[in-house]
Structures are given as C-alpha cells and as structure tokens.
Description:
single chain; 122 residues; globular; mainly alpha
Amino acid sequence: MSYLYVAIGGALGSVLRYFLSLVIPKAAGFPWPTFVANVLGCFCIGIFSGLFLKCDSLSPNLKLFLVTGFCGGFTTFSTFANENLVLLQNGKIGMFAIYALASFVLGVAACAGGIYLMGYNR
C-alpha cells in the first residue's frame, strides 16, 4: 500500500512540475522552470520535514505521499544535471555557474526556511 501513496504523490508532483514548465518562460536561455521547481520543492520538503519532526502523530503514509512522492516527483535532479551540461556544452560558463550555485544555495536555504517556518528547532 505504501507504493500507492508514493505513486499518487509522485504523479501529482510531476504534473505540477510540467505545469510550471508551461507557464514559466526560459528567459535568456536560463532554465527558470526547473530552477523554480527545485527551490520551491526544497521549501516544501523543508515544511513537510519540519511538520513530521514536530508532530509524531502524523501518518507515515502521509510522509511517503508528501516527501517521497510529491517532492520527489516535483523536483528533478536529472533535468537539472542535463540543463547544466547543455549550458557547459554551449559555452555558457557564467550562466552554468550562476544556475548551479544559486540552485544549491537557494535550495538549502529554502529547505531550512521550511523547517524553521514549521517551528522545529534542533
């Protein structure tokens, strides 16, 4: 049954990611849709993780649905890696550096912000 929670969450996350790719333009060659999905996904996983750390009574199936399924389907490291490779292949070293560094820094900050927002303090 746990596979079903992951599958449904993953499907919803993937559809939302696809929607972002339709509504957010790639301006000046920068892969904004993936960037937004990954940073927003990091924020979401931070919120969900903070929620589960704070509330022991929440269902493990809900965690599978939200964290493993939805966030796993919504964010995409493989697309991120491919887009970085394309930037390098096209000689856009500066844009590659900005995209890779900003994705990492903002991703970690968004995750921490989500956990902090949920009131969990380690």
